[in-house]
Protein 1
Amino acid sequence: MIDEKTFLEQQKIDGLNIASTISLLIFGMLFAALLLCLILMRDNFVVWPPPAFLLLSISKPTLSTIFIFLSSLFLWSAQRNLSTPEKLKKARISLKLSIFLGFCFLAVQFLFWRELNTHGFNVESGAFASFLQAMTWIHAAHILLGLFFLLIFLNRIRKSRTDFFLNENEYKIQTIKINFYSSFWHFLSLVWVLLLIGLFAPL
Amino acid sequence: MTYAHDIHPAPTTFLTKYVFSYDHKVIAKQFLWYGIFFLGIGGMMALLIRWTLAFPGEPFPVIGPILFPHTNGVVPPDTYSMLFTLHGTIMIFFAITPILIGAFGNYCIPLMIGARDMAFPLLNLLSFHIAVLSAVLMLASLFLPLGGAAGGWTSYPTLSTLIGSPGAGQTLWCLSLFVLGVSSTMGAINYITTIIAFRAPGMGYFDMPLTIWGLWLTAILNALFIPVLGAGLLLLVFDRVFGTTFFLAGAAATTGGGDPILFQHVFWIFGHPEVYILILPAWGMVSDFLSFFSRKPAFAAKATALSMTAITVLSTLVYGHHMFTTQMSPLLTQTFMTLTMTISIPSAIFFANWLGTLWRGSISFDTPMIFALGVVFVFGLGGLTGLYLGAATTDFYLHDTYFVVGHFHYTMAASVLLGGFAGIYFWFPKMFGRMMNETLGKIHFWITMIGLNGVFFGMLVVGYAGMHRRLYNPFVYEFMQNLIPLNTFITWSALLMGFGQLPFLFNFIYSLWKGPIAVENPWQVGTLEWTLPSPPKTHNFDTIPTVKCGPHEFGNPLLKTGRDFQYQTEELVR
């Protein structure tokens, strides 16, 4: 028979695990619905993407993809290095690189939007441009949220904070939260790839 | 200080006790007041709509000249569109949802599963205050120069785009619902987590009261499908504010226009589960109440829970039946029709279980029970009329008529409203520590029951006769003029139903202060909340209870306690 305090602490840990899974599902459903709209819209077009779009260079979306992929990779490395206090330094470096690459992704997105507007692919120029702009806006808004989460993660493992491994339950709780932040970031990388396919893959 | 009190600080000021409370019971009451307030507003809008249909061109009595001074009290045509739009929106999202899900979910879940609070009390607090923000946005839209949203509660483009609704009211409508969606998903995360992780030791899923099953399934649907509506609303806001063309056909011929039907897909992927989001808590409560007041174990309770689960799953696959008239492929039509009809199977199972519970029970007709029986009746009618709309052949004729309005009011309004009232009468003693008046409760029930059947059955009849919904004055068409008497009858029934809520209001408010003091367990049932004082203290349980039997242990002949029921904390007597 476990005592009440242990029971309640276990409830808290289980609760956090469940809530983080549901939260990811909620974001998943939002993007699934948006991608469904994109798929249904593609069905209305004879040619996708519109021929005019072929005049644009795809260098920026390619660069964005590289940045977000590398960012995810460094984040994965940071997660792997959380197991012992000795590896925490490596985790910090990987995480900082991941965050930096996240900001690089956003910077390239800004340049991409500018290029789109310069070439007349503004939001009012038809459904394709509407999707191209709005989907990348919504994704970028979530990238901002993801970066905020990663900064919280960085704060949790900062050098001056020495209590990370001390309390077993606290360690479990922090790990669940960090796993959520990281899963959210990986999820955004996956969404970016799906968006690219949905937006640019020819019919 | 025990560990129990560490969950959240005990309230010390008025603000922390009644406004920014972390306590799930206070938040439940906040949602209850919120819902009742909007029930009044939505109900008043319904009366304005009905008055216009029965007496076109005549001023609405008493408040008409105040509300519409420029037309001497007559509801103007553009306002009529706003009224039916906001009546639907307010009743669904701001009245039924807060009462059935916000109030009962918050109140019942921790108490009935043996928890001290929700998993995340701060999230719970935020959920309510975000709902208030959403309500402010929605109400603010009424005061804009071009008024509130007028594209119907479904807000189909192009009615809801800048072409159909040029004012900012529709934009605020979208933002309000988006914000409310955030609140609802926060609530859903809390409900699902609490039910899965915070159940008392010994409480398996099938030991949970069916009320909790209903609320749990609702929360799952909310978590999965509110984001889908969110996506549609985001795109609609982009169309309206930034000039995108997701839902505008032919807006830019060179690069291809958008598609108004796209919104219907997104809306109904959410919208059909939404029907079940609203009804599942009521089903759960009714399933429990029928057992409690028949003094019998719920007949095949596991099958009822599994049927509700099956309906939840199927509800996610049938949205296309709302779009039969959008020229979808016949193959899809048949698929959606078949899937829709499949819902009849689990529905029939749990409906039969309800009757099985009542069969040879020792039924006491207390107010919660008669409301629960009312749900059985009106949901039967609502469910059966749904078959005609789920079958493409009949739907083509009935689509967009008052038959649809009558059907969804039977399911979403009548059933849910009666279920909500049953819940209020049942848990009022636990919530406020006082009893409501039984006689007034029964008067309330009969007037409501007669009134709502007059309204909604009348709608089925005029709809079948060909009267379209959303027409300001259908009687400009000669063939509809013979429906005027029936429409007048519907309106008088609506007024009767409206006035029938006065005994409830009086009873509710009077009983809060002057009702007889409630004992711990006035209904003599064994679920965990009734092991606590009325009202329970801030942290519910001093010691987390251990559950040893199910929630419907009635009429066991081996019982020697002098009671005919067992508490869930007692070992099952065999």
Protein 2
Amino acid sequence: MTQKTLHIPNRPTAVIAVVLFAIAFITYWDASHMKVRATYGMSASAASYFVALLFVALAIGHLISAFKPSDIEVEAADWMAVGWIGFALAGLIGSIWLGGGFILGSTLLFALTARAFGRKALLVDLCLGAVIGVLVFLLFNKLLTLALPQGPLERLF
Amino acid sequence: MDTFSFLIDGFALAIQPANLIYAAIGVLIGTAVGVLPGIGPALTVALLLPVTFKLDPGGSIIMFAGIYYGGMYGGSTTAILLNTPGESASVVTALEGNKMARAGRGGPALATAAIGSFVAALIATAGLAVLAPYLVKIAVKFGPWDYFGLMLIAFVTVSATFGSSPLRGLTSLAFGLWLGLMGIDQLTGQARLTFGVPELLDGVEVTTLAVGLFAIGEAFFVASRHLYKPEKPIPVKGSIWMTREDWKRSWKPWLRGTIIGFPIGALPAGGAEIPTFLSYTIERKLSKNPEEFGHGAIEGVAGPEAANNASAAGTLVPLLTLGLPTSATAAVMLAGFQQYNIQPGPLLFTQHADLVWGLVASLFIANVMLLVLNLPLVGMWVKLLKIPLPWLYAGILVFASMGTIAANPSVTELLLLTGFGVVGFVMRRYDYPIAPAVVGLILGPLADSALRRSLQMSLGDPMILLQHPSSAIMIGIAVVALVAPFVFRGLSKFRQDED
């Protein structure tokens, strides 16, 4: 998605058009598998068909504008930073998935997100993240009695 | 005077010590979160919703009102001191306010924004209290076809009419509508677009979408380009109080801003951007020193800030009386009401009259608290702006994900949140507005059921929508509003950014 592809005008828009077509197709496919029909008026699949049609129209619109030069400037992105945030979120999801609990997950999330924004002191951030995680856990589970996912650390409290 | 006695009852509820404490906590955390750069009122409310889960409905709604107004106030503080408006409605405030702050007049800029917001919210909330009962009287006569027409107008105005590009706005709306299809259909019990995932049967949570698109998407976006644009807050020097001259130049813009903001907010036209830009233009035309505009004219802060708050109070009119959110903030607030099992709409005023008027009364109280607490505390808010960016966004992500799993502890919910974050990043990168997606998700299923109920009543004849003059006119307006921007490209010069 760099500006080097200028001779193919507006490639991102073309990609989005393809995605929109795909969503339209999935929606159509899903709606065509719905069996129950309404006695009067619209059945539940009608809205799906409408949205699918809307997506097709928007996809055509995107396709047309993909052949014009782009009207917005897309800045260069630091994909490393984006990757670190993805990694951070994966840390949280993985921790909860594998039963590591909320505190461990949010510690990872905090430290790795800080890394994405350019901080190098990973150990400090891990400690800070752990402190925040514990405080949030105590606030939610004890004070507001909302159940956050528990792991070995949480069971100590 | 029914309204008046109801309002007195509302104040009696809101002034109880426990509720006053809820309002104060709401105002404080609302401002604290709203002041963080890149976080507008919609995200503030979405992030803080889980905190109010376990309170009783009265208390949580009162805290909610505080969070809402606090978030609005916090947004203007960021705009003035950091030149990073957290929402599009603060863009104009940043224009003049940031120049004032750079010229060492940050204090008076914050003061005129705060007092202007106070004056505007006070008048507009009074307008809400007066107007709502009349609208409810009309709204109870609405058939499902009228609701469908209204929702069409809201769809079109939120996404197509005022956006930078109707195509992008409608695409964002379509994404919201598509998500709205997911889950079990209410009338026939069939699953739509769930792909066999049991967690999707309940549909997509509005808060998950809002937090994903706004918070996670923003974090991705800022991280992807933070290397190139570091920002530093401007310290507030000198007196924070306004001089006599400042007062003289501010009071008229406050009132004019209110008069512009409230009606536009109350119409199902969506957004506070138009009134703020309109107010800015008018103040520049009327000012005795137009040459100051662009270099820190106090009128350019006072007017738009008043217009912003007045229109925010205005959006509560369709939200409370019709159940119709016309901005991302209103959509998130509607989600909040639904979490307490309260469905805004005409029935709300009869079934939960105490709650509605308690809410209106606490809006007044939150407003007073904002003025009393925030001007003296401005130093504290400035310190919040100094949190290093890495920790700030790390904290936001922890808070965002925590709120999501506290509401619905499942890995699927977190995966959805991450997915929405990626979509939000792509939307920001390629300049797609985000508010229409949130509004589409919440209004889509409502429009679907309104249309189907109409068709059931007419035994399947779609002409029922055009046979009632009221719905025919509304559908006509929606069609005109949809086609107009394509016909008159020049009309779409009002740019709508993120809420």
